[in-house]
Amino acid sequence: MPKIAKTDIELLKTWTLSPTATLGSSVRAKGILQEIQARLPATSKKSVVLEGSDLILAMPAGEKATFSAAVAIISRTMAEAETLPVIPREIEDILTIKTSERHRWLEDGRLPSAGTRTVRLNGRARRITFHVFDLKVVEDLLDRGVVDEWREEDIEAKAEKRRRAAYQAKLTRSLKKAKKASKKSAREPDEAIPELRGWEEFDVDGLLR
């Protein structure tokens, strides 16, 4: 609840986030709150808070015009809540995945991107760009439980990669060994010449003179 004395609060409105909008994620609920706050004027941002799955807007009685404007913005955003794109930290919480898994599955196409978003970090000039995801796609992935399947696929792929690396290392060692043997044979040609028997007797008879 905003820090306003209870005796001053006469303007109050509550909205409830649907399970379809949050997919049971408190991180997603907080993300929707932040989306609403980003659309509100600076003077109204702190007037809306999240309590569980409820968004509460509270203002003093003397701010009817500001309250009405905020109600319109929040109501419009709530109507879009079930279509708002899912940002990285939200999909990680919804699917219970690690950042490294998100990057890997996004790169290999298993986790389809719905586009990118560029935002400026609070208090900084630097901007960051990140992929966002379609809420319906995320819901489908959650319902089908594909994360466990993907992890199994990754384990198998990693094992296959190790087997190939071991085979390649063995093949490389064999080739090096064969190359060394070939060089050794080239350096010792005399070993390939058969021994000539009776040569001394042939020389004694003077046949070479």
Largest sheet: 3 strands, antiparallel
CATH class designation of the domain at 1-82 = Alpha Beta
Beta content: 5-15%
Helix content: 40-55%
Q: Which structural class do the helices and strands define?
A: alpha+beta
Protein name: Mlr2029 protein
Organism: Endobacterium cereale
Region (Disordered): 173-192
Biased composition (Basic residues): 173-184
Short description:
This protein has 209 residues and is α+β, with helices and mostly antiparallel strands.
Give a description of the structure:
With 209 residues, this protein is α+β, with helices and mostly antiparallel strands. 53% of the residues lie in helices and 14% in strands. It has a 3-stranded antiparallel beta sheet. A two-stranded antiparallel ribbon has the order 4-5. It is elongated.
Identify the notable features of this structure and list them briefly.
209 residues, three-stranded antiparallel beta sheet, Mlr2029 protein, two-stranded antiparallel ribbon, single chain, alpha+beta, Gyrase A, domain 2, 8 helices, 53% helix
